[in-house]
Amino acid sequence: MNYIKKLSRFIVPYKRYAILNIICNVFYALFSTLAMVSLMPMINVLFGESEKVYAKPAYNGVKDIKDYAENYINYVVTSTTETDGPERALLYMIILIIGLFLLKNLFNYLALFFITFLRNGVLRDIRDEIYHKVVTLPISYYSEKKKGDIIARISGDVSMVKNSMLSVLELIVKEPLTIIFAIVAMFMISVKLTIFVFIFIPIAGFIISRIGKSLKRKSDKVQREQGVFLSTLEETLSGLKVIKGFNAENRFYKNFQTSTNRFYNFSNTLMNRQNLASPTSEFLGIATIAALLWYGGKMVMVDQTLSGGAFIGYMALAYQILTPAKAISKASYQVKTGNAAAERILEIIETTSALDDKSDALTKDEFTSDISLNNVFFKYEDDYVLKNFSVKVPKGKSVALVGQSGSGKSTIANLVTRFYDVNDGSISIDGIDIKNLTKNSLRGLMGLVTQDSILFNDTVANNLRIGKEDATEEEIIEALKIANAWEFVKDLPNGIDTNIGDSGGKLSGGQKQRLSIARAVLKNPPIMILDEATSALDTESERLVQDALEKMMKNRTSIVIAHRLSTIQNADLIVVMQKGEIAEKGTHNELLAKNGVYKKLVEMQSFE
């Protein structure tokens, strides 16, 4: 139950509901016991065994409450029988029983009513916390994690913890109190018979605990496998064109089927172990009742130390213990399965990010001088992809990074935007190390256009407003015109309010890229980072996109990562990269004159 302590901060905002639930559960347990005890006077009236009490008893404090309650009920029964007959006395007893059962069920409903707000509130807050963590953790975290596993944790695992938390509250309050009140009443009726009952309880408890020991491990397997098949599903939906294009449907289906078969087997084992709890505890309870019938019946019929009404009331109380005992055993299993789910949730929540803002991080609202990369070393895993890399990008200038794939060009974009931190060296803006700036203000100075046009299943307008939330319709249209996108957006069914489908699936590659550029234009940042923004386009789309980029880059500081050299001839500085180091740098004409690496790259590509 260690995870309850760690997740308790999610319960604190709803503590008033927890307190109200506990109060209602106390009354529920009390009235549950009194409802069973009230069967005794009814049976005594029914069989004429009530003790005759003609004088109204006096109340002498809590110590004598049992005798007072018994004598007062006998007094009411005696006086009512004398004046109105035994039927009226029986009717009063029935009304008493109905009233007590009504109160018991009313408080049970109220307890569940209040706990609902706590359960669903905790569920919402944990999901919000995980989602916030998901969007704030560095990109490097997800290079080793499967998306489907994250989805499984934020959906299934959180629901399991919610149910487990409810079980804990029942385990701590409702069911134990019901048992305690019932046992107190049983001791009041017969100490000897109650001691006899307690011989059987440890035996039953030992057997039940043996069943539940492996549940946490089995539950963990089920949850992990759920993450695997959700990952397969997510990858299938993302790569459906490739799967169909290569006739790989059967291969992916077999992978998915293998995972669901494992999930089927793990779930069967877990559920069968859980299902064993209820019948086992019920059988052990009935065995206890059977022993009671033998021993208690002997006290009534042979020893005559217990009345028939008291014995039946005692049996009702003993049976009443069975239901909460079963609930406790079931709840304890849920706690074990919840423990496994909580560990997976806490793994995300407690993950620390090396990219978190410093406590004294600065907020920077404007760009005045330059971006400087100073002796930067960086590696994703073991081998350095950048070595001793230095370059300065003055304000208003454009610097292009070129080189073969794997030379470290896109890594520069990842480091400048602080998606990753350098291993050695530094990156500064206006002389301030970007590690000393808040990530929000740093990225607020930058616009990013990537090779993959990342768009969302929403309207054109809402996709652009990611760059500027309060943008007007006129500003959106102006940004679309600069990006050469208005020509196709105006012809869409609902213009800028047209939904573009999942990942912009209703648009062509060139159209998606121009929307990405329009989004960056609308943000209007002083620094623009273009990461191979035209490499995936056909010639016509590239011409339109390149024209849009040139419009956008006017009077703006730009870092352009290019595969096609035709797009960067006008850059103020071209940096040629080779295996993470600078091979050459200069303008287009200067580099051609050097007759080195750049010229070879140019000769491999045809200029238009």
Automatic annotation (TrEMBL):
Pfam families: ABC_membrane (PF00664), ABC_tran (PF00005). CDD domains: ABC_6TM_MsbA_like, ABCC_MsbA. The keyword Nucleotide-binding applies. It is a multi-pass membrane protein. InterPro entries: AAA+_ATPase, ABC1_TM_dom, ABC1_TM_sf, ABC_transporter-like_ATP-bd, ABC_transporter-like_CS, P-loop_NTPase, Type_1_exporter. The chain crosses the membrane at residues 20-43, 89-118, 179-208, 276-295. Residues 371-604 form the ABC transporter domain. It comes from the Bacteria. Keywords: ATP-binding, Membrane, Nucleotide-binding, Transmembrane, Transmembrane helix, Transport. The keyword Nucleotide-binding applies. It is found in: Cell membrane. GO terms for cellular component: plasma membrane. Its main location: membrane. Residues 19-337 form the ABC transmembrane type-1 domain. One of its GO terms (molecular function) is ATP hydrolysis activity. This is ATP-binding cassette domain-containing protein. It comes from Winogradskyella ouciana.
